[in-house]
Amino acid sequence: MAESKLRNMSFDEEISKRRNQPRLSQTSPTKTSKMKSKKIRKSPELMASARKEGPVNLTTVDWQNVHHRRIIAASLVCGSYFLEHDRQENRQGCEALAPQWWEFFNFQLLYPLIDSNDFSIFGAVYEYKPVAFNKHQTGIVPRYIIAFRGTTIKKQSVSQDLWLDLNIIKHGLHQSTRYNVAMEAVQNMVSAVGASNVWLAGHSLGSSIAMLVGKNMAKTGNYLESYLFNTPFIAAPIEKIQSEKVKRGARFAGSLVKAGLTVAMKGSKENRSPDDSFTALAAWVPKLFVNPADHICCEYIGYFEHRDRMEYLGVSGIEKLAMQTSVTGLLKSAIGRESEVIHVVPSASLTINRSPSWELPTFMQAHGIQQWLKEDLRLNSKVYQYRL
Question: Is 25 helix (H, G, I), strand (E, B) or coil?
Fold first, then answer.
């Protein structure tokens, strides 16, 4: 009978009834309300909301907007970070924090990339699943984005991450399991749908992996659009020198040393023209995003500016030899050890975050992926195209 009366009750009467119900006192909540309150405070969804996780800086997506494309790529990299965080903290289903980073952009997780050494998730393959077809997006939107995370301090993966960071310094990342897994995933995807339908994205360590994969794909004539955030540049921190005169002198001296070593070790005849494997990369223009306050990646600024200056001075031949390698790479070659210098590229679209330093006061913030999620950054961008 009571159930029948409830069905016949109008909507307004039901709302009125709920409004007239006595409320529990806020000063002395019941035991039940305390338990609910405690449960709510531990909710991962609310914790994520409080930390403002997810792509909160965009309300709509315009694929023709270069800043939106940057934010999308950075968000999917964040998704790869949170996939590993979710795994380690055993967050599954509705408690998982990772999906919010790709679902807003109509991507779905195709599969994660796993390092067999520690079983950590170091990347992911995302597939674009548009709600409706938009002819204006044809040729702009990728079908797949393969994104790689950087170093994380989570206990189950930090040791392997740091070991790979060391391998970047030693120019040995190409011998790692993660690179091989990443390379296989990209090759399979490009073979299936073509290079124009696949993007690469990465941050820090993950950016080095994406850089290495992109370079080797470019050598086969497959030029993938790549978004590389805070890519490590292994060199002396010349960009941090305050005196512009001293800075230029140091770079010029470095070019002479590297060019001289290259000629001495490989033979002057062979090095009268740039190495074929290096010039093969000229048509590939990865998008590099750097912050001048980040000493890990800021040398890219001087690397490309110095090349332009050497060309202006009429000594571009010296720089063409010097920019192909590093002193460490040359020394390893001298003792017969294999190496692959990741950070040297002939061409790039370099974007520098010139936002005020007080917005990113610490090194971790200057190196962090979060800065690239914002739309209103003060950015300087320039395309450096290698001249054969």
Answer: coil
